[in-house]
Structure formats: structure tokens, C-alpha cells
Fold this sequence. Notes:
Elements: H1 8-28, H2 38-52, E1 56-57, E2 70-73, E3 76-78, E4 93-102, E5 105-114, H3 120-136, H4 147-158, E6 163-164, E7 170-172, E8 179-183, E9 199-202, E10 205-207, E11 213-215, E12 222-224, E13 230-232, E14 235-239, E15 244-246
Antiparallel strand pairs: 1-4, 2-4, 3-12, 4-5, 6-10, 7-8, 9-14, 10-13, 11-12, 14-15
Amino acid sequence: MYIRINNFKDIKNIILVSKIVHKILNYISFYIKPGISTGEIDNICYNKIVNYYKAYPASLGYMNYPKSICTSINDVVCHGIPRYNEFLKNGDIINIDISICKNNYYSDASKMYLVGNVNSESINLCRVTKNSIFKSLKYIKPGNKINLIGSSIQNYVEKFGYSVVREYCGHGIGKKLHEDPIILHYKNNYEFTFKKYMIFTIEPMINIGSHRTKVMNDGWTVKTIDKSLSAQYEYTILVTENGYKILK
């Protein structure tokens, strides 16, 4: 395993692309309403990334993924493929995951959006999922074990009766979209410690029901095995001298 320690040039460029990712996540929020197709959402993001920010959607073509972003609705855990015949409905929750490359540097983030009038169960799932990340951040500083993140997230979400998806994880990021180390969001024995100037993602996928998932016939879309709701937030994180910084 090779853990890349970033220099100041690396960090500056990753911060730049991270700001673009979050600006687009904020920008697309104005379009999230009943009746819009996920294909149209993808097109809006593509045009903003390419034509306005002069960057490139890192998902597009990655391992033959066909679109610029991922759009995961309700029981879709991750990697939902945007489609022009898939329309948002009142009461849906949707995760939009955006990864961007600019100047040969990468950043990655996602967030949940509420479509129209959403019930309290869905709202609470999204709230707990986001909070689980912030609960784990206090463990990030040089010398601490990476597995403290997974223990913190699992302990927190299970208080609400939720489960943590096991098959997908956070990852190092910077000069590649996916680098070492992996960041597991559940209890594990991964002994590696945080190093100053590491950059990685935290992106727990939290289900109301079982943590088990299945991949659909398109080879990408991942759903909960029991059709229960799933939520995810993702942040790119820099390890600083004494703690962390969310890059956005």
C-alpha cells in the first residue's frame, strides 16, 4: 500500500477542484424538484463542469461508466446512472455524487437532496447520515488509527436502528480518483494511522434496513437488498498538523 503525502502545490490544486465540486452541488440544488429527469440533471452538471469551470467530470468513462455524475434515488445506495426516462417524484430523496478533475487533480463529494414534501423518516435518515460523518471527524489527526472513523460511524447510526453498507468505502484522492488508503465506515481492524497532508474521502452509505446490497443488471446501480431507503454524504478531507480540514 502506497499512501501519498501531498505537498503544498498538491494541496492548493486539490482545494481548487474541491471548491468547484461543492459549487456545483450547491448550483444543482435549484433544479431538484418533481418532474425533472436525472438525465437532465446530469446534462446540467456536465455543462457547468466543462463549459464554465473548464474541468472534466471524472466519472465519465471511468471503468466505462456512461455519465458525468451519479444519481441515486431512494433505495439506490450508490452509482445510479442518470437517465432521461427517470423522473424525480414528490417525496423522493436523491444523492448526487460529483467527482471532478482539473489540472490533473481530483476531488469527490456528494450530498442528499429532498424532493418536494419528504416524510420525517427520510429526513431523519439524511440527518443521521450527515451527522455520522461529523461525529467521526474528531478522530482525524496525525497518529490516530483510521479505523476509528468506522467505529464512530457504526456506533452512531446503529443507535437509530440503521445499518452501514459494507461493500463500498472512502478512499485516498488527489492525483488519481481512487488512491490508498481505503476508508471503511464500519468497525474494522485496519491498523494504518493518519499522516499529515493525507487527503481522502469519507462517504458512509446508511440504510434504514439491512446493510446488504445488490448490483443491478446495468452493472453499476447498487440497491438495498430489502428495498429500504439509503442515504449518503461524502466529503474530501485533508489531514492537517493537529486535525483535519474539509475541502470545499
